[in-house]
Amino acid sequence: MPPPGDSKKTLAALGAFCLFLSTIEYMIPKPLPFLRLGLANVPLILALHFPLSFFATLVAVKVLAQALISGTLFSYVFLFSLAGTTASSLLMFLLARLFHRAGSRRGAISFVGISVAGAFLSNITQIALARFIILGESALYIAPPFLLMGMFTGFLLGLFAEKFTQQSVWCASGAFCPRRHYGASGALMLCLQYEKGAIPLGSTSPLGSDTPRRTPHALPLQKKFTKEVMLFIIGVILSITLLFIPWTSIRIALFLIFWIIAAVRGRAGNPLITLLVFAAIVLCNMLSPYGKVIFSIASFDITEGALLGALKKAATIEGLIMLSKITISDTLRLPGVIGSTIAESFRIVRILNENKKKIDLKRFINWIDEMLIRAETL
Questions:
Q1: What is the pLDDT of residue 115?
Q2: 118: Cβ contacts below 8 Å, ≥ 6 apart
Q3: What is the pTM of this model?
Q4: Phi, psi of 36 (to 5 degrees)
Q5: Would you call 14 exposed, middle or buried from its count of C-beta atoms within 10 A (0-12, 13-18, 19+)?
Q6: CA separation for the pair 159, 112 (Å, rounded)
Q7: Is pLDDT at 136 greater than 90 in this prediction?
Q8: Which of 74, 242, 250, 349 lies at a 20 to 30 A Cα distance from 188?
Q9: How far from chain centre, in Å, is Cα 260?
Protein backbone atom coordinates (compact mmCIF):
# COMPACT_ATOMS: atom_id res chain seq x y z
CA MET A 1 0.00 0.00 0.00
CA PRO A 2 1.60 3.30 -0.98
CA PRO A 3 1.87 6.07 1.60
CA PRO A 4 -0.51 9.00 1.20
CA GLY A 5 0.32 12.11 -0.80
CA ASP A 6 3.95 13.12 -0.83
CA SER A 7 5.76 10.06 0.56
CA LYS A 8 8.80 12.17 1.52
CA LYS A 9 6.65 14.49 3.60
CA THR A 10 4.86 11.53 5.19
CA LEU A 11 8.21 9.92 6.00
CA ALA A 12 9.50 13.18 7.50
CA ALA A 13 6.27 13.60 9.50
CA LEU A 14 6.58 10.11 10.99
CA GLY A 15 10.28 10.79 11.59
CA ALA A 16 9.33 13.96 13.48
CA PHE A 17 6.88 11.87 15.52
CA CYS A 18 9.77 9.50 16.36
CA LEU A 19 11.92 12.47 17.42
CA PHE A 20 9.15 13.84 19.61
CA LEU A 21 8.64 10.51 21.40
CA SER A 22 12.41 9.88 21.62
CA THR A 23 12.85 13.23 23.36
CA ILE A 24 10.19 12.29 25.92
CA GLU A 25 11.80 8.89 26.51
CA TYR A 26 15.28 10.42 26.82
CA MET A 27 14.03 12.58 29.73
CA ILE A 28 12.61 9.59 31.64
CA PRO A 29 15.12 8.30 34.27
CA LYS A 30 16.25 4.72 33.66
CA PRO A 31 18.36 2.37 35.83
CA LEU A 32 20.48 1.44 32.81
CA PRO A 33 21.04 3.65 29.73
CA PHE A 34 20.07 0.99 27.20
CA LEU A 35 16.70 0.27 28.85
CA ARG A 36 13.94 1.85 26.77
CA LEU A 37 10.17 2.03 27.03
CA GLY A 38 9.88 1.89 23.26
CA LEU A 39 7.73 5.02 22.88
CA ALA A 40 9.32 5.82 19.53
CA ASN A 41 8.05 2.48 18.15
CA VAL A 42 4.54 3.92 17.75
CA PRO A 43 5.32 5.54 14.36
CA LEU A 44 6.81 2.22 13.22
CA ILE A 45 3.57 0.44 14.12
CA LEU A 46 1.57 3.05 12.20
CA ALA A 47 3.79 2.46 9.13
CA LEU A 48 3.65 -1.35 9.11
CA HIS A 49 1.44 -1.44 6.00
CA PHE A 50 3.60 0.93 3.98
CA PRO A 51 6.07 -0.47 1.40
CA LEU A 52 9.16 -2.20 2.79
CA SER A 53 11.54 0.48 1.49
CA PHE A 54 9.49 3.21 3.21
CA PHE A 55 9.29 1.22 6.46
CA ALA A 56 13.01 0.36 6.44
CA THR A 57 13.94 4.02 5.91
CA LEU A 58 11.73 5.04 8.84
CA VAL A 59 13.43 2.41 11.04
CA ALA A 60 16.84 3.83 10.13
CA VAL A 61 15.63 7.39 10.76
CA LYS A 62 14.29 6.38 14.16
CA VAL A 63 17.51 4.67 15.29
CA LEU A 64 19.86 7.39 14.04
CA ALA A 65 17.66 10.26 15.25
CA GLN A 66 17.55 8.74 18.74
CA ALA A 67 21.36 8.55 18.72
CA LEU A 68 21.63 12.20 17.62
CA ILE A 69 19.19 13.39 20.28
CA SER A 70 20.82 11.47 23.14
CA GLY A 71 24.39 11.80 21.85
CA THR A 72 25.05 8.05 21.88
CA LEU A 73 26.09 7.35 18.28
CA PHE A 74 29.56 6.09 19.27
CA SER A 75 28.41 4.15 22.31
CA TYR A 76 27.05 0.70 23.05
CA VAL A 77 23.60 2.29 23.55
CA PHE A 78 23.41 2.85 19.79
CA LEU A 79 24.30 -0.81 19.20
CA PHE A 80 21.53 -1.89 21.57
CA SER A 81 19.02 0.40 19.90
CA LEU A 82 20.03 -0.73 16.41
CA ALA A 83 19.88 -4.44 17.25
CA GLY A 84 16.65 -4.27 19.25
CA THR A 85 14.81 -2.03 16.80
CA THR A 86 15.92 -4.00 13.74
CA ALA A 87 14.89 -7.35 15.23
CA SER A 88 11.53 -6.13 16.51
CA SER A 89 10.76 -4.17 13.32
CA LEU A 90 11.38 -7.18 11.09
CA LEU A 91 9.13 -9.35 13.23
CA MET A 92 6.36 -6.73 13.41
CA PHE A 93 6.52 -6.14 9.65
CA LEU A 94 6.19 -9.87 8.92
CA LEU A 95 3.34 -10.31 11.41
CA ALA A 96 1.50 -7.31 9.97
CA ARG A 97 1.84 -8.54 6.40
CA LEU A 98 0.82 -12.11 7.23
CA PHE A 99 -1.86 -11.73 9.88
CA HIS A 100 -3.05 -8.12 10.17
CA ARG A 101 -5.48 -6.21 7.97
CA ALA A 102 -5.13 -2.42 8.17
CA GLY A 103 -8.33 -0.73 9.30
CA SER A 104 -10.08 -4.05 9.90
CA ARG A 105 -11.11 -5.63 13.18
CA ARG A 106 -11.12 -9.11 11.61
CA GLY A 107 -7.37 -9.67 11.31
CA ALA A 108 -5.81 -12.69 12.98
CA ILE A 109 -3.64 -10.42 15.11
CA SER A 110 -4.11 -6.86 16.34
CA PHE A 111 -1.60 -4.06 16.75
CA VAL A 112 -1.51 -5.01 20.43
CA GLY A 113 -0.29 -8.52 19.62
CA ILE A 114 2.19 -7.21 17.05
CA SER A 115 3.56 -4.63 19.49
CA VAL A 116 3.93 -7.14 22.35
CA ALA A 117 5.73 -9.62 20.06
CA GLY A 118 8.06 -6.88 18.82
CA ALA A 119 8.81 -5.66 22.35
CA PHE A 120 9.56 -9.22 23.51
CA LEU A 121 12.04 -9.88 20.68
CA SER A 122 13.65 -6.46 21.16
CA ASN A 123 14.19 -7.13 24.85
CA ILE A 124 15.54 -10.63 24.23
CA THR A 125 18.02 -9.17 21.74
CA GLN A 126 19.15 -6.47 24.16
CA ILE A 127 19.50 -8.89 27.06
CA ALA A 128 21.68 -11.14 24.87
CA LEU A 129 23.89 -8.16 24.01
CA ALA A 130 24.05 -7.12 27.67
CA ARG A 131 25.17 -10.65 28.51
CA PHE A 132 28.20 -10.46 26.21
CA ILE A 133 29.04 -6.73 26.26
CA ILE A 134 28.18 -5.21 29.64
CA LEU A 135 26.85 -7.32 32.49
CA GLY A 136 28.14 -10.83 31.84
CA GLU A 137 26.13 -13.61 33.46
CA SER A 138 24.43 -11.05 35.71
CA ALA A 139 22.27 -10.07 32.73
CA LEU A 140 20.13 -13.11 33.52
CA TYR A 141 19.03 -11.45 36.77
CA ILE A 142 17.56 -8.42 35.00
CA ALA A 143 15.89 -10.52 32.30
CA PRO A 144 12.54 -11.29 34.06
CA PRO A 145 11.64 -7.70 35.11
CA PHE A 146 13.02 -6.33 31.84
CA LEU A 147 10.88 -8.70 29.76
CA LEU A 148 7.78 -8.04 31.87
CA MET A 149 8.21 -4.28 31.58
CA GLY A 150 8.75 -4.57 27.82
CA MET A 151 5.63 -6.67 27.31
CA PHE A 152 3.57 -4.27 29.43
CA THR A 153 4.75 -1.18 27.53
CA GLY A 154 4.34 -3.09 24.26
CA PHE A 155 0.73 -3.80 25.22
CA LEU A 156 0.08 -0.12 25.99
CA LEU A 157 1.75 1.09 22.78
CA GLY A 158 -0.19 -1.43 20.69
CA LEU A 159 -3.42 -0.37 22.36
CA PHE A 160 -2.60 3.27 21.59
CA ALA A 161 -1.91 2.38 17.94
CA GLU A 162 -5.29 0.59 17.72
CA LYS A 163 -7.15 3.58 19.16
CA PHE A 164 -5.20 6.02 17.05
CA THR A 165 -5.88 4.26 13.74
CA GLN A 166 -9.59 4.08 14.58
CA GLN A 167 -9.91 7.77 15.52
CA SER A 168 -7.21 9.53 13.49
CA VAL A 169 -8.12 11.88 10.65
CA TRP A 170 -4.50 11.60 9.45
CA CYS A 171 -4.91 7.83 9.06
CA ALA A 172 -8.26 8.27 7.36
CA SER A 173 -6.65 10.66 4.88
CA GLY A 174 -4.87 7.75 3.26
CA ALA A 175 -2.23 6.45 5.67
CA PHE A 176 -4.30 3.28 5.83
CA CYS A 177 -6.97 1.99 3.44
CA PRO A 178 -9.40 4.93 3.09
CA ARG A 179 -12.41 2.85 2.13
CA ARG A 180 -12.73 1.07 5.46
CA HIS A 181 -14.79 2.55 8.27
CA TYR A 182 -13.02 3.91 11.35
CA GLY A 183 -14.63 4.33 14.73
CA ALA A 184 -14.27 8.11 15.06
CA SER A 185 -17.24 10.25 14.06
CA GLY A 186 -16.67 12.06 10.79
CA ALA A 187 -13.39 10.31 9.94
CA LEU A 188 -14.85 8.45 6.95
CA MET A 189 -16.40 11.65 5.56
CA LEU A 190 -13.10 13.51 5.89
CA CYS A 191 -11.35 10.55 4.32
CA LEU A 192 -13.58 10.72 1.25
CA GLN A 193 -13.10 14.48 1.06
CA TYR A 194 -9.35 13.99 1.11
CA GLU A 195 -9.64 11.29 -1.55
CA LYS A 196 -11.68 13.57 -3.84
CA GLY A 197 -9.31 16.47 -3.26
CA ALA A 198 -11.90 18.63 -1.49
CA ILE A 199 -9.57 18.99 1.51
CA PRO A 200 -6.05 18.45 0.19
CA LEU A 201 -3.34 17.93 2.77
CA GLY A 202 -1.41 20.70 1.07
CA SER A 203 -3.90 23.40 2.01
CA THR A 204 -5.43 24.46 5.30
CA SER A 205 -5.58 21.78 7.99
CA PRO A 206 -9.08 20.42 8.65
CA LEU A 207 -8.32 20.72 12.35
CA GLY A 208 -8.01 24.48 12.29
CA SER A 209 -4.35 25.12 11.46
CA ASP A 210 -3.89 27.81 8.83
CA THR A 211 -0.35 26.85 7.98
CA PRO A 212 -0.01 26.73 4.18
CA ARG A 213 1.96 23.95 2.58
CA ARG A 214 5.39 25.07 1.55
CA THR A 215 6.80 24.18 -1.78
CA PRO A 216 9.15 21.21 -1.21
CA HIS A 217 12.71 22.39 -1.38
CA ALA A 218 15.98 20.57 -1.44
CA LEU A 219 17.88 20.79 1.81
CA PRO A 220 21.33 22.32 1.31
CA LEU A 221 24.16 19.86 1.53
CA GLN A 222 26.35 20.31 4.56
CA LYS A 223 29.84 21.55 3.75
CA LYS A 224 32.62 19.04 4.15
CA PHE A 225 34.39 20.64 7.10
CA THR A 226 31.76 22.25 9.29
CA LYS A 227 32.18 22.18 13.05
CA GLU A 228 29.73 19.28 13.33
CA VAL A 229 31.59 17.18 10.74
CA MET A 230 34.96 17.87 12.34
CA LEU A 231 33.65 16.84 15.75
CA PHE A 232 32.19 13.70 14.19
CA ILE A 233 35.56 12.78 12.63
CA ILE A 234 37.33 13.44 15.94
CA GLY A 235 34.77 11.26 17.68
CA VAL A 236 35.37 8.37 15.27
CA ILE A 237 39.14 8.57 15.82
CA LEU A 238 38.89 8.82 19.62
CA SER A 239 36.32 6.02 19.88
CA ILE A 240 38.61 3.67 17.94
CA THR A 241 41.51 4.76 20.13
CA LEU A 242 39.53 4.11 23.31
CA LEU A 243 38.50 0.65 22.13
CA PHE A 244 42.00 -0.51 21.26
CA ILE A 245 44.12 0.98 24.08
CA PRO A 246 45.16 -2.02 26.20
CA TRP A 247 45.90 -0.15 29.44
CA THR A 248 43.07 0.15 31.96
CA SER A 249 44.50 3.26 33.61
CA ILE A 250 44.55 5.19 30.33
CA ARG A 251 40.96 4.17 29.53
CA ILE A 252 39.87 5.44 32.95
CA ALA A 253 41.79 8.68 32.39
CA LEU A 254 40.15 9.18 28.98
CA PHE A 255 36.72 8.53 30.46
CA LEU A 256 37.35 11.20 33.13
CA ILE A 257 38.58 13.68 30.50
CA PHE A 258 35.54 13.05 28.30
CA TRP A 259 33.23 13.41 31.30
CA ILE A 260 34.81 16.75 32.32
CA ILE A 261 34.48 18.13 28.77
CA ALA A 262 30.85 16.93 28.57
CA ALA A 263 30.13 18.51 31.97
CA VAL A 264 31.64 21.84 30.87
CA ARG A 265 29.44 21.74 27.75
CA GLY A 266 26.41 20.91 29.88
CA ARG A 267 25.88 17.51 28.24
CA ALA A 268 27.19 15.09 30.87
CA GLY A 269 23.82 14.49 32.46
CA ASN A 270 23.34 13.59 36.11
CA PRO A 271 26.78 12.65 37.59
CA LEU A 272 25.10 10.42 40.16
CA ILE A 273 23.50 8.33 37.40
CA THR A 274 26.89 8.05 35.66
CA LEU A 275 28.51 6.92 38.90
CA LEU A 276 25.79 4.39 39.64
CA VAL A 277 25.95 2.90 36.13
CA PHE A 278 29.77 2.72 36.36
CA ALA A 279 29.51 0.96 39.73
CA ALA A 280 26.81 -1.42 38.49
CA ILE A 281 28.94 -2.48 35.51
CA VAL A 282 31.95 -3.06 37.79
CA LEU A 283 29.97 -5.07 40.36
CA CYS A 284 28.21 -7.23 37.78
CA ASN A 285 31.47 -8.10 36.05
CA MET A 286 33.15 -9.06 39.34
CA LEU A 287 30.65 -11.84 39.98
CA SER A 288 32.90 -14.20 37.99
CA PRO A 289 36.23 -13.85 39.87
CA TYR A 290 39.56 -14.84 38.34
CA GLY A 291 43.21 -14.11 39.06
CA LYS A 292 44.90 -13.23 42.34
CA VAL A 293 42.60 -12.78 45.36
CA ILE A 294 42.99 -9.24 46.76
CA PHE A 295 40.53 -9.57 49.66
CA SER A 296 37.29 -11.29 50.55
CA ILE A 297 33.88 -10.05 51.64
CA ALA A 298 32.16 -12.86 53.54
CA SER A 299 32.57 -15.81 51.16
CA PHE A 300 32.99 -13.64 48.03
CA ASP A 301 36.53 -13.18 46.68
CA ILE A 302 37.60 -9.89 45.10
CA THR A 303 40.20 -10.86 42.53
CA GLU A 304 42.70 -8.69 40.69
CA GLY A 305 41.81 -9.98 37.23
CA ALA A 306 38.05 -9.48 37.65
CA LEU A 307 38.50 -6.01 39.20
CA LEU A 308 40.80 -4.73 36.45
CA GLY A 309 38.62 -6.24 33.73
CA ALA A 310 35.49 -4.71 35.25
CA LEU A 311 37.10 -1.26 35.55
CA LYS A 312 38.33 -1.48 31.96
CA LYS A 313 34.89 -2.42 30.65
CA ALA A 314 33.09 0.25 32.70
CA ALA A 315 35.55 2.98 31.66
CA THR A 316 35.19 1.98 28.00
CA ILE A 317 31.40 1.89 28.01
CA GLU A 318 30.94 5.13 29.93
CA GLY A 319 33.80 6.78 28.04
CA LEU A 320 32.10 6.07 24.70
CA ILE A 321 28.87 7.58 26.01
CA MET A 322 30.63 10.78 27.12
CA LEU A 323 32.60 10.92 23.86
CA SER A 324 29.35 10.72 21.91
CA LYS A 325 27.81 13.50 23.96
CA ILE A 326 30.67 15.90 23.16
CA THR A 327 31.18 15.02 19.48
CA ILE A 328 27.62 14.33 18.19
CA SER A 329 25.22 17.16 17.47
CA ASP A 330 21.60 16.98 16.31
CA THR A 331 22.58 19.48 13.60
CA LEU A 332 24.94 16.94 12.03
CA ARG A 333 23.78 16.28 8.47
CA LEU A 334 24.15 12.64 7.49
CA PRO A 335 24.37 11.80 3.77
CA GLY A 336 21.73 10.20 1.56
CA VAL A 337 17.97 9.83 1.78
CA ILE A 338 18.10 8.86 5.45
CA GLY A 339 20.21 11.89 6.31
CA SER A 340 17.95 14.32 4.44
CA THR A 341 14.86 12.79 6.07
CA ILE A 342 16.37 13.17 9.54
CA ALA A 343 17.25 16.80 8.77
CA GLU A 344 13.71 17.46 7.52
CA SER A 345 12.25 15.75 10.61
CA PHE A 346 14.37 17.92 12.88
CA ARG A 347 13.20 21.00 10.95
CA ILE A 348 9.56 20.01 11.42
CA VAL A 349 10.06 19.37 15.14
CA ARG A 350 11.72 22.76 15.63
CA ILE A 351 8.85 24.56 13.86
CA LEU A 352 6.25 22.64 15.85
CA ASN A 353 8.09 23.43 19.09
CA GLU A 354 8.09 27.15 18.26
CA ASN A 355 4.30 27.11 17.96
CA LYS A 356 3.43 24.25 20.25
CA LYS A 357 0.35 24.22 22.38
CA LYS A 358 0.19 22.66 25.81
CA ILE A 359 -0.27 18.91 25.55
CA ASP A 360 -3.74 17.91 26.68
CA LEU A 361 -3.54 14.33 27.93
CA LYS A 362 -7.33 14.06 27.79
CA ARG A 363 -7.21 14.49 24.01
CA PHE A 364 -3.72 13.15 23.37
CA ILE A 365 -4.74 11.21 20.25
CA ASN A 366 -6.25 14.34 18.72
CA TRP A 367 -3.12 16.31 19.64
CA ILE A 368 -0.86 13.77 17.91
CA ASP A 369 -3.26 13.70 14.95
CA GLU A 370 -3.03 17.47 14.58
CA MET A 371 0.76 17.30 14.79
CA LEU A 372 1.02 14.73 11.99
CA ILE A 373 -1.39 16.60 9.71
CA ARG A 374 0.36 19.89 10.31
CA ALA A 375 3.80 18.29 9.84
CA GLU A 376 2.81 17.36 6.28
CA THR A 377 1.98 21.00 5.54
CA LEU A 378 5.19 22.57 6.89
A1: 93
A2: 41, 88, 89, 91, 92, 95, 154
A3: 0.72
A4: -135, 150
A5: buried
A6: 5
A7: no
A8: 349
A9: 27
